[in-house]
Each structure stands twice: as C-alpha cells, then as structure tokens.
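[job 0412] stage=complex_fold ligand=nicotinamide-adenine-dinucleotide status=START
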Amino acid sequence: MAVTGEPSFRESVDLMFNRAVALMDLSPGLEQKIRVCNSTYTVRFGVRLRGKIETFTGYRSVHSEHMEPVKGGIRYAMSVNQDEVEALAALMTYKCALVETPFGGSKGGLCIDPRQWDEHELEQITRRFAYELIKRDLINPAQNVPAPDMGTGEREMAWMADQYARMNTTDINAKACVTGKPPHAGGIQGRVEATGRGVQYALREFFRYPEDKAAAGLGGGIDGKRVIVQGLGNVGYHAAKFLSEEDGAKIVAIIEHDGALTDDKGLNVEDVRQWIVKHGSIKGYAGAAFVEDGAAVLEHDCDILIPAAMEGVIHKGNAARIKAPLIIEAANGPITFGADELLRKKGCVIIPDMYANAGGVTVSYFEWVKNLSHIRFGRMQRRAEEARSRLIVEELERLSSDRGLGWELAPDFKERFLTGSDELALVRSGLDDTMRAAYGAMREVWHGRNDVGDLRVAAYIVAIDRVAKTYRSKGL
Ligand code: NAD
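[job 0412] stage=complex_fold status=DONE, emitting structure tokens
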C-alpha cells in the first residue's frame, strides 16, 4: 500500500488531471466542472444469511454525464470505499473519451470479501444490491451500464441483468443494462479476455514505434522481453498468456496477493493459473521459485512491468527501486502521483491505465451495441464474405488450369482466406483498431508538443479536450 502522507487515490487522479489542464486552455469553470464527481450514491442494505441479517455497504458513483449512459465496473472487495469508487469513476470518464466509446464515467463497489460467501449467498447479495441500484436508474441501459471489475465477473453480471429484466419486464433493451455477461445471457465473444487482449495490443502498438521504444531504452519487439506481472486475475492472466504464447515474451515473475513465483527461463502462465484455480493460491507450485514478499518482486530486473492487480502498489516508498524501463498500467491507478513523478525523472516510460486497460470498456461498448441491435456481429455478412472469397479462389484455380500455369494456392492461405469473420474475429479487429487509434492520438500530443513529456499527460489532454468539446457543444 501507499506510504502515509501520499494523496488518496482520488486526489492522485485529480493531481494528474491538474498536470494536464495546466497545459490546456480551458476556462476555470469548465475545468472544475470536468474534474468533479457529479454524484455518489451510498447504500446500506441487509440480507438474511446463515440465520442472521448481514448489512452490506455499496456505492455507485457517477463522475460525468456529458454522455449517457455512463459506464464503469462494479468491484467486490473489502477495501472498497467512496474515495476509491470516485477515483475509478473519474478514470472511466477519461478512458471512455480516450478510446471514443460514447459514455460518461461511473464506477461501483460493494464492501465484501466474495471468498467468504458461497455461490447462492453471493447471488442473493448481488441481486439485492442490483435491486437498490436499478430502483434509482443506477443500472439502466440508457443511463448507467455497469461491467465487471475486481471480484466480479460474468456470473455477477448475469444475475444483475436478470434482476433488471425481472423489474422491467417490458424493456426490450433490458440486456443492455450491464456488460460482461456470459455469451449465453446476451454477452459477446471476447469480452472476458478483452482487457488483457487490449494490454497486448497496446504493447504491440508501442513496439511499432522506434522512437517510443528508444524513450524506454528498449529495442526490438516483444519477443524475448522479460516481463513481470502482478495479479494473475482476469486482466493479468490474459495479458501474460497472450504476450507469452503469441508474442514470445518471457514471464519471469508472477506476483500474487500471497507471494510471487519467479523463473528466469519464463513461467508457463496457463500452468500457474490452473494451479491457482485448483489451490486458491500460488503457494506450493513446483515449477518455479517462491518468494514470500511478493511486493518486493516488483523491484526485480525486467524489461516490462505489468501491474494488473490494484491501485497504489507503486508508491513513493518503492518507486526509486523499480528497475523496469517500461511499465504498462493494466490495473487502475497502480502508480501513485508521487511515484509517477519519481519514475518519470528516472526515465521510465509509463503506458497509463486510462489507455492500457481500456480494452474492457471497448468490448463492453461492442456488447452494448450488440444488445441494442439484437443481432450478433457477423451474422449477416460472414457467409457473403466467404462466398466472395470463394469466387476469387475458384477463378484463380480456373485460370491456372485453363492456361496450364500450375499455380497452387497454399492450403493454409486458402483456408484462412475462405473463412469469413465471426463475432470473435470482429471484436478483436474492433479492439485492435481502437487501441491503435487511441495510441496514435496520445502519441501525437506526446511527440507533437514540446511541453508534454509523457504518455499520461498526453492521454489526459486528449481525453479532457474531447470531454470539453462535448460540454461546449451542449452550451456550457
Ligand atoms: P481480478 O479480481 O480478476 O484479479 C485481481 C488479481 O490480483 C487476483 O488474482 C488477486 O489475487 C490479485 N491480487 C490482489 N491483491 C494483490 C496484491 N496486493 N498483490 C498481487 N496480487 C494481488 O480483477 P481484474 O478484473 O483482473 O482487475 C484487476 C485490475 O484491473 C483492477 O485495477 C481493475 O480495476 C482493472 N481493470 C479491470 C478490467 C476488467 O475488465 N476486469 C477492466 C479495466 C481495468
């Protein structure tokens, strides 16, 4: 956790915002309007469990309604509090603007340790929490659309969507009230992997630019890079898996809440994940060295550090000892404002959270659009696309045989060319396009202005400028 004396998470986000607006030409009134959180609803509700009434505290914060619906995950953790939820809601506003998803920013949380309750109990608690939010339009397809975050996933989203449908029986768009649902309950292919996949696409894009790599003192591609990942949950697992299995990165350490595993030759991410799923911990995993003090492993030598667990893990107390030349913030707010400053002075390049983990909200946007259009992506065009490709292949084969040219298309090429895009392929294509476009917008500011020295400020400038434009067009 952050050392005492550092700003809170929300203050940290505001300070980062302030660094950016100082370089912009906004009226003080508009600047303040964008910075503040519009509202935070706190609810305390009771659920009868194990023979007694248990009281839970939950939040739903709306940072900005410059676009509606507002969007943001719901987190289940004991550490959830108003400051954290407001910080995360603010980040959602900027994130949505940066990746051009047409939403305002929101976030929710419930103070709960999900591991303490069994599935049936969690369902009762989730449905009751959802009921409280739905009653106040804090879950609603047109106004406020939650998604998973730490401690929640497809299962919780399915319960919430069902609760909304029960309370709004004639709403034809009911399924669009939350995203991150399982595919059989109105979800979309590729949502579970989306945030980790986005981290992979973000890194691929970064490594396409020699100047950007050089800023971190790195060369080459992702292949062979030594990577440390903190948090092997949804985001960290998918990011580490794709980077190692598809791009040749070496995962030299995995840090979890109860220690870390290290192996200079590279860990098998899938193997470690299966171990955690089975045993609930990385402890006892035989294929690597175990380090009791997981947080200390953040300071180990590596090329890329991926904090993918929680906020405030890189703080003034350890920033000076961090060796990674490149950090990609897969989690929200893993680097405090003070640590950010120390790291920048050391020359470390930070790919900021609002961009790095935007894959989740991007694919959530696709899911929401799918729900509103009531049709799966690719259903109309996939076979037409295949038929057109087949025409070309058949014509080439005819030409070859008629004229005795002896051409033969490689079987692998033929199969790939003749396969139309299904929903997963389209989702990945849309995500890749989004991550590239947003990176382009950030880097234009990063390299195009001599008063902007890092990607975080660039990201804030792009996002705030877009939010300001929306407000101005509303007459504010
Ligand atoms: P998750 O609950 O699936 O996984 C979190 C993992 O981190 C767990 O494996 C947990 O054991 C581990 N962890 C917790 N505390 C730790 C600590 N102190 N040190 C090391 N590991 C620790 O959560 P997630 O959905 O993967 O979210 C992780 C981060 O990514 C959060 O900051 C979240 O806000 C952010 N995020 C998630 C999504 C998404 O789509 N799920 C989207 C954008 C951002």
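The radius of gyration is 23 Å.
[job 0412] exit 0
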